[in-house]
Design goal:
Layout (H helix, E strand, L loop, with lengths): L2 H17 L5 H16 L4 H18 L2 H7 E3 L12 H5 L18 H23 L7 E2 L15 E2 L1 H21 L12 E2 L2 E2 L10 H29 L2 E4 L5 E3 L24 E5 L6 H23 L10
Parallel strand pairs: 1-7
Antiparallel strand pairs: 2-3, 4-5, 6-8
Length: 319
């Protein structure tokens, strides 16, 4: 990516995050470094995906923030709602890889698929979490046998609104990819004849309209599946702690675990000790770990699946 585009764009992101307090100071540093790494590659798509994810993610985080703040509690006892993202949250949601080709061939570099899938999954999860909590219907716990109702903000809770929002988030990434990826263009020397057709899914390295539409659809669905996987992992392995008095979910600062017993040393009667309960989850992982694991599974899973579909060895990504 050209420096005269990358440098001003990175500085603009830095200023926006700082002025709007979208990130903590450590988060801003990590974001700037991540943006710089993305900008090194000659393709603009990876930097663009990072920018689109950041702008769209911060936008949906601010949607009806005052209402969302009343639906949950912070671990300190204050109102909930997503605060500035820190460096750990950013690292759990972004990754980068090098791609060698000047253009991306059909049945080409698998790493491109992995990177796009990563952003589609985390964008879908962000949209689903931030907009799903505003649903008028109570969330249903995805990991329960009877899909029982849980409070808004509970890990593993899903709603129709959140699911549709997840598809929207993944589609934004899919559309960005289709518009900006340097697809290999049709060349007469690459013509392939199979089943009476030229190019298309039957052969050739060029990307036609059918392939691009299929890519957009597949990325959208795969991203939405990533959001569902995040809900499942959160429902199983991340504890949802609820305040007994208000019935609201307590959110950990910076995505960290929430203590079941509040550390209120000034309360000598220890009445606060039993004020919290675990609604669901084993409490093995925190939110950042769940996000990282989900993104890793969806990224590696997409490359493995396309390795089979395209008949390309998975080891090709390190060659």
């Amino acid at each position: 990516m050209h420096p005269y585009i990358a440098i001003p764009a990175t500085l603009a992101l830095f200023y926006r995050a700082y002025s709007r307090k979208s990130l903590t100071p450590a988060g801003i540093i990590v974001a700037a470094l991540t943006a710089a790494i993305h900008a090194i590659h000659p393709w603009s798509i990876f930097f663009a995906l990072l920018v689109v994810f950041f702008l769209a993610g911060t936008k949906v985080t601010k949607v009806k923030h005052d209402i969302k703040a009343r639906l949950t509690l912070a671990s300190s006892g204050a109102s909930g709602g997503e605060g500035p993202r820190n460096h750990i949250q950013l690292r759990s949601r972004s990754e980068h890889g090098s791609v060698k080709e000047e253009c991306w061939a059909y049945r080409g570099d698998l790493l491109v698929i992995g990177i796009i899938s990563n952003y589609a999954a985390v964008a879908a999860d962000t949209f689903s979490s931030e907009l799903g909590v505003l649903s008028s219907s109570k969330p249903r716990l995805l990991t329960s046998w009877n899909l029982r109702q849980v409070p808004p903000g509970a890990n593993g809770g899903v709603t129709l609104t959140g699911t549709l929002a997840g598809f929207a988030g993944a589609f934004i990434i899919a559309l960005t990819s289709v518009v900006l990826l340097p697809f290999c263009a049709f060349d007469e020397s690459d013509r392939r004849i199979a089943y009476g057709n030229t190019l298309g899914f039957e052969g050739g390295k060029a990307w036609g309209l059918q392939e691009k539409m299929a890519l957009a659809g597949a990325v959208t669905v795969w991203g939405a599946l990533g959001s569902a996987l995040d809900s499942a992992l959160g429902g199983w392995f991340q504890a949802s702690v609820v305040d007994k008095k208000t019935g609201k979910v307590i959110e950990g600062t910076g995505g960290r675990k929430v203590l079941i017993h509040s550390l209120n040393t000034s309360d000598k009667t220890n009445t606060d000790k039993a004020s919290r309960r675990v609604e669901s989850g084993l409490g093995i992982l925190d939110n950042n770990s769940v996000n990282f694991l989900m993104a890793l599974i969806m990224s590696v899973g997409s490359m493995t699946f396309m390795s089979y579909v395209w008949d390309i060895p998975i080891r090709s990504i390190i060659q």
